[in-house]
Amino acid sequence: MKKQTRLINSFLKRGSFLGKSEVSTYRVEKSGSFYVLKLANKKDTFQVELLKREENLLLKAKDIQGITQLVDAYDFSSKPSKSPWGYGILKEYAKGNIISQKEFVSDVYLKNQLEDTIHQLHGLGIVNLDVVRRNIVIHPAKECITHIDIGTGKEASEISKKKFKIYCGKDWERFDSLMD
Predict the structure, then answer these.
(1) 20 to 30 A Cα–Cα from 40, which one of 9, 88, 149, 158?
(2) Could you read off the pLDDT of 131-152 as tens digits, one per residue?
(3) For the residues of 83-100, what is the DSSP string, one character each?
C-alpha cells in the first residue's frame, strides 16, 4: 500500500493536471514515457466504481487498437491510508490533438480507423462509447486516431438487447457527427 501511494505521489510531482470531470485526471511521466493517470477520491464511491468500470472495459478490449490501453490499476481501499485516493488507473497517453469544435474528420484513413475501432468494441459487446470530440485524439502527423475514454461504456451482459441496439445507434450517430 505504501509503495503504491509513493508511486502515485511521485507521478503527481512530475505530472500535469488535465482536468476533473467525474475523476481527477493527470498526464504523468514514467520511465521517459507519458501516461494518463485517473484517480478517484476514496470518499466518493461513484468515482471509484466509474474507474473500476473503465478498468474492466479496457481489460475486455485489451486487443483493440484505436483506444488508450490500460497499463496498471491501483486499489488503495484495502488498508487505511492518508492518501485521498481510493482507486486509480494508469492508461496510455495518446499524443495529438482533441478534435476541435469546428473540425471534422475528413481523412478517409482516419475515418476507417475510428469506424473499425467502434465495430470491434461493439463486437465485444461494449456500447455507449461516448464518441464525442473531447474523447477523440488525432496524432499530429495524422497517422492514427484514438478514442481516449470508453469509461462510460456498457457491456451487453448488463443491458437488454433493445438497449444495446439503441446505444449502438447512438454511437454511430455520434461517429457521423464527427465526419464531414
Answers:
(1) 158
(2) 999 999 999 888 899 999 999 9
(3) -SEEEEEEEE---SEEPP
